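User: I'm curious what two different proteins look like when written out as structure tokens. Can you demonstrate?

Assistant: Sure. I'll show them one after the other, since each token string lines up with its own sequence. Here's the first protein:
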Amino acid sequence: MTDLTGGCLCGAIRYRVSAPITELRACHCLDCQKASGAGYSVNAALPASAFTITQGAPKRFEKTAASGRILYRFFCADCGSPIYSQRQTTPETVVVRIGTLDEPPAGARITTHIWTRRARPWSHIEPRTAQHPGQPDAPATAR
């Protein structure tokens, strides 16, 4: 596999991914809608060891997500592009915003939609994908 590269809109932040990306998850939660400025974000979960910042230093924003967990969102402080996120409880995993890759990963497709109960009326959700009204692995108290 050839490493994938990506970065923010202005080029201040660059990164490399050294693991294959085959499955994508679309998140329709309100936080992802606000952070993306769209109906949802499309993400790839990767081992943190396969994700390397090669240029710049993203800014971190901390927020308690609707799942009840603390989520760190990393973005470019210059252009505002969201790059990736990590849960406080699982730092061994990063969730990369797939739209920040320079080239789309071959064969990758959205396999799961989460937080579908928050989906905007204009959002298309492919009926053949897995769908979850909230966070599939959230604590029982998730909103």
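Here's a second, unrelated protein for contrast:
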Amino acid sequence: MGIDAKQLIRAFQQCGIVYVSGENVGPCQRCGFREDRRMGACFECSTYVDGQYCGDGIHKLWDRTNPSNIWIVSVTP
């Protein structure tokens, strides 16, 4: 009985070794433009986003130019 891919990815994520995300189209949490985004922000705005890993694939993120703009993202395989 071996470990499956989901278990392996989850173990790596818990160690902070790997980040896995699929396509996610929606409005950017920073500029509102609808496009492919990761962790709630479009690629253009991603340089303005900072965050904190909270465990279990959960990230608390915020706009560095507007720290009151906070959102939570859950990344689970």
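A detail about the second structure: Strands lie at 25-27, 34-38, 41-42, 49-55, 58-63, 66-74.
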